[in-house]
Write a structure and sequence with these properties.
single chain, alpha/beta, 7 helices, five-stranded parallel sheet, globular, about 40% helix, two-stranded antiparallel ribbon, Oxidized Rhodanese, domain 1, about 15% strand
């Protein structure tokens, strides 16, 4: 019983430490003009949220959040995205691997007049680290997550890292 309790305390402490380190990383790269939404918040929201995946096609093909729309990063096009989301009052959550590229895309959406845009804190890595489901192109659940690179992949603690 005591060992289980100690493990639980260690796990919670490590989780908090990891989140603080991630917070520090995101502060380094992000302006934080876009509000974050956290995994626990997002998983409890109703189905009317629009999810945008700001990663490249090979990353999206490996895995993505259920019903997410791939908008990419390098070739993001606000006009084609606006056609997919004509209501600028829609609640939109943008994510990428960790939340850095998604902030850039979310800022572009905000500049285009979208009012309710959020950035998923920790991106798909944090989603998977919290044991949430991801899906492949056939919309089948998978444990694989494109880890982008060895440097960034260290933030993915759960699931199978894919680098191709």
């Amino acid at each position: 019983m005591q060992k289980t309790f100690l493990f639980f305390i260690f796990f919670i402490s490590a989780l908090g430490y990891s989140q603080k380190k991630l917070d520090k990383l995101l502060k380094k790269y992000n302006s934080e003009k876009i509000p974050y939404i956290y995994v626990n918040e997002l998983k409890s929201y109703p189905d009317n949220i629009i999810l945008l995946d700001a990663r490249e096609q090979r990353e999206y093909a490996t895995s993505h959040l259920k019903d997410a729309i791939a908008v990419g990063y390098d070739f993001f096009n606000i006009d084609s995205t606006s056609k997919k989301i004509p209501n600028k009052n829609s609640k939109v959550v943008v994510y990428c691997s960790l939340g850095i590229r998604s902030e850039d895309i979310a800022e572009k959406l905000q500049k285009a007049g979208y009012k309710n845009v959020f950035n998923l804190f920790g991106g798909i890595f944090e989603w998977k680290n919290n044991l949430q489901k991801v899906y492949n192109l056939k919309e089948q659940e998978t444990d694989s997550v494109h880890a982008f690179s060895k440097d960034w992949g260290k933030w993915l603690q759960k699931g199978i890292k894919v680098y191709e």
